[in-house]
Amino acid sequence: MSTALAIGAVSAVLRNVLDNGLVDAVPAVGSPVKVSAKAPDLIKLDNPSDGPQLNLFLYRVSLNQGWRNADLPSRDSGGRRTSSPPLALDLHYLLTAYGKEDLQAEMLLGYGMQLLHDRPFLDRAAIRSALQFDPLDPSATVPTAFQTPANAGLADQLETLKISWELLDLEGMSKLWSATQSHYRPSAAFQVSVVLIEPARPVVTPLPVLTRTLRVEPSTLSPYPTLESVSAPDGTPVVELGETVTLHGTHLAGTALKVLLQHRLLKVPHVITVGANADATTAKFALPATEPVNQIWPAGVWSVSVELVPEGESEPRTTKVAAMMLAPVPTVSGVALTRDPNRIHAVVPLTPSVQPEQAATIGLNSAQGPVAPHAAALPQIEADLAPIPGGPAVVRLRVDGVESRIIDTTKPAPEFRADRKVVVPS
Fold first, then answer.
1. Can you tell me the distance from the alpha carbon of 221 to that of 109, in angstroms, rounded to the nearest whole number?
2. Residue 216 domain-assigned?
């Protein structure tokens, strides 16, 4: 693949091809020909000693459609990018002839077009030769940047550079010369395709596998530890701090079992060590009853995975993740409600605290109100709600889309939990 210097290297190679071939044009135009690669507005013909000139102008760069979706970025199991697709470019040039004498520009443009027509592609030898610095040639003007890496990688890329003429109608040509604020000169447009620039980023390559272990089991299940779901004591995936959580899966028996819990607000996951586990289909761990000092356990959606050393193996394995929803728990005894004709103002202590980046809502029966944005963690939240009739009401909290548990599933018929009710003043 080429480096980021490849675009300039293509211009340098084309200039070298034209410069070497225009030696035959000297008898026809009457003087040596200068070949340049710059914008048309930088070319001045005011100096009487300046002879005829042929200029290459890279006026447009476009994405190559054939290579654009040839590959996708790949990542490893940790989410780190291991490879990137190449940046595939087509280069669009304008070949312009300048001359002070009659017919000089026309003859010079003809020579230039013939040279490019006879060379429909740039072979690797020509690229290396054009970009090779020659200390014995004082006229060599190849930038030293193209030497490291050698040839800017242009000669070693997978695709060969192909040259083709392209149509630039009168309107397009007029717009182009107007944009460069230059006087029109005889010109021809052509395209060079394709330049493949490889992103310069570190690549992670795994080490070779030293030993292979083949396991055959008469089952459609994966032979490796797999985590399928997470449940609270009531059987739902919504858990609360202080509860024992059950993990469901396959091949969960082993030693050195650890539970990794990741939340969007955590830089590193919380790790809970379980140790040995004899049950192949379930494992259990306990959540802290309160938030430890200097450690947050925000409500919301958590990603849970398990790391363990399976039976009969010596290296740990990590399962895929499963979702766990940690619900906010209101402290009902500390709820304060005040009423005026237009609203009910509610103050609700809760566990865990609501972090600054989290959205929260307080509800009393069907009335709900959002918590105002806050800059610090809140052990209690407050909001204004629409007025509702006085009497018992269920306190409902929602943090990051996860609602507090308000239904008692232990009764024969579901009903609202008594410990989640308050009395609304009349």
1. 71
2. no
